[in-house]
Specification:
This protein is α/β, with parallel strands linked by helices and about 250 residues long. The protein is built from 7 helices and 9 strands, in the order βαβαββααβββαβαβα. The strands form 2 sheets. The chain has a 6-stranded parallel β-sheet, covered by helices on one side. It has a 3-stranded antiparallel β-sheet with strand order 4-7-6. The structure holds 6-phosphogluconic acid (6PG).
Length: about 250
């Protein structure tokens, strides 16, 4: 069982500041120990403020040339499309930092999904020098939580929740941005640290189910996130935490 911490902040702004502070701390530690920081970014709307803060008030707190950026999932759209997870991170953070292209390991949403998944898997193998059956170990994986309980692009009912072998998979869902590419649980769970970032009342039920619901990862995919040798932090604002029992929300 991994180490789990739940931190509840007053509002979405306090949550963003705290998330940025945590990223700065983990980055400093990783760069000090390993000479680099491998950061796996999340998509969705919640991280935009965090990414913007990283590039502005926290800009001088990170040695950006030592940071390697990856993504937990991508929508199958071109990088300049508004729905692109790379595009979102690029607009709010990456384009404002002095980075070299070699630091950005994006999922190519503009390519056919199967090809994009294969290319991303190859990139992970190359970058992390993985042997057969090995998984990358990210220093930090950021994850959001959908109202329906999904994280990365692991949606309720998807067999990918129980994937054990593949690192990257394609996903087709009945929603806008139907085609996606996602990392699988064995990759996410091999991270040294995972940080969920969840804000807003409409996420309260998903948070409750993930943290206190019956053990049913197929219905509540975030429950599959349980790093083998790592820690999970849940950063919640009060609204997202509002349905948690007193012992967790106090
Ligand atoms: C994506 C994601 C996804 C996201 C959640 C929460 O590409 O959509 O990476 O897992 O984190 O849907 O998204 P919001 O922050 O927009 O609520």
């Amino acid at each position: 069982m991994s180490e789990r911490e739940i931190i509840i902040l007053d509002d979405a702004n306090a949550l963003s500041v705290r998330a940025a502070e945590e990223i700065v701390y983990v980055a400093g530690e990783a760069i000090c120990i390993n000479g680099q920081f491998t950061l796996c970014l999340t998509g969705g709307a919640t991280p935009v403020d965090i990414y913007s803060m990283m590039a502005t008030r926290f800009n001088l707190s990170v040695d950006w040339k030592e940071v390697q950026f990856f993504w937990g999932d991508e929508r199958c759209v071109p990088p300049d499309n508004e729905a692109s997870n790379f595009g979102l991170a690029n607009r709010s953070m990456l384009s404002k930092l002095a980075l070299s292209p070699a630091q950005i390991h994006r999922i190519r949403g503009e390519d056919p999904p199967v090809a994009a998944a294969a290319a991303y898997e190859e990139e992970l193998v190359r970058f992390f020098s993985l042997g057969d059956g090995e998984f990358p170990r990210f220093d930090l994986v950021l994850l959001g939580l959908g109202d329906d309980g999904h994280c990365a692009s692991l949606f309720p009912g998807s067999p990918l929740i129980f994937e054990q072998r593949r690192m990257v998979a394609t996903v087709e869902i009945e929603a806008p941005q139907r085609r996606r590419v996602t990392l699988t649980p064995p990759v996410l769970n091999n991270a040294a640290r995972i940080m969920f970032i969840v804000a807003g009342e409409k996420k309260a039920e998903a948070v409750k189910n993930a943290l206190e619901g019956p053990n049913a990862p197929s219905r509540f995919p975030a429950q599959i996130i349980n790093p083998t040798e790592g820690a999970v932090t849940w950063l919640l604002d009060r609204s997202a935490a509002s349905l948690l029992s007193g012992s967790l929300s106090g």
